[in-house]
Every structure is written in structure tokens, then in C-alpha cells.
Design goal:
It is a single chain. It contains six helices and three strands. By secondary structure, the protein is of the alpha+beta class. The protein folds into two domains: 53 residues, Orthogonal Bundle (Arc Repressor Mutant, subunit A), CATH 1.10.10; 55 residues, no CATH class. A hairpin with a 2-residue loop joins strand 2 and strand 3. Helix 2 crosses helix 3.
């Protein structure tokens, strides 16, 4: 999915070529077909090739994946997610990023009232 979102649209061969340590090409095609059956992708015919396109906008996919992680790995705790992100980040937050987080918390508190 990551390859298709980065490219916007891709054939199975293009997905396979851009995967780190890819499985067999047949496994990639099978996985794409499964993702299509589940409604995550659709395909368009271009000659003999199927070109796969995501069906969900990237921001919606991000929210859905994060909701799943929040429930399954962090017991529904947003603060646990943020604490873990800050702990594992490869770089320090910039002053602008810290200000942005403070502002998000301020808005969340204002919405509670």
C-alpha cells in the first residue's frame, strides 16, 4: 500500500520493484488482489496490466491506522501514544513543533468546557 500511495498508482511489477526485500512477484499480485477484494484498492486496465489505485485518501488511512494502534497497543490512551512517539523519535522537537503541540492541547482543553 505504501508504494501505491507514494506513486499514486502502480502495477504489481512496479510495487514489487520498489519494495525492500520483496517476496515473489506472485505473492505481491496475490496481496494486491486481496487488498482489492477488501476494498482498499481498485484496478484499472492498461493493456494487459492492472494498475492499482488506492480507494481511501491518505489522511483517512492515517487516521484509521492510528485509531487501530491506539486501541490495540496503547489501551486507547492518546497520552501514551504521544509519550512513546517523543521517546522513539530520531530527533528533538523543534520550538515550532512544541508550540504546535501546546496549541493543540490548549484547543482540546477549550473544547472540554
Amino acid at each position: 500500500m505504501d508504494v501505491i500511495y507514494r506513486m499514486g498508482r502502480a502495477s504489481a511489477a512496479e510495487v514489487h520493484a520498489r519494495m525492500p526485500d520483496p517476496p515473489a512477484p506472485t505473492a505481491v499480485r496475490t496481496f494486491l488482489r486481496i487488498l482489492e477484494d477488501k476494498g482498499h484498492l481498485r484496478h484499472e486496465k492498461e493493456g494487459p496490466r492492472h494498475i492499482y489505485v488506492p480507494t481511501t485518501p491518505w489522511p483517512s488511512l492515517q487516521r484509521s491506522a492510528l485509531r487501530h494502534l491506539l486501541r490495540s497497543l496503547f489501551d486507547g490512551s492518546p497520552s501514551a501514544v504521544v509519550a512513546t512517539l517523543l521517546d522513539v523519535s530520531e530527533r528533538e522537537l523543534s520550538p515550532a513543533e512544541r508550540d504546535e503541540l501546546v496549541e493543540m492541547i490548549r484547543r482540546a482543553r477549550a473544547e472540554e468546557r
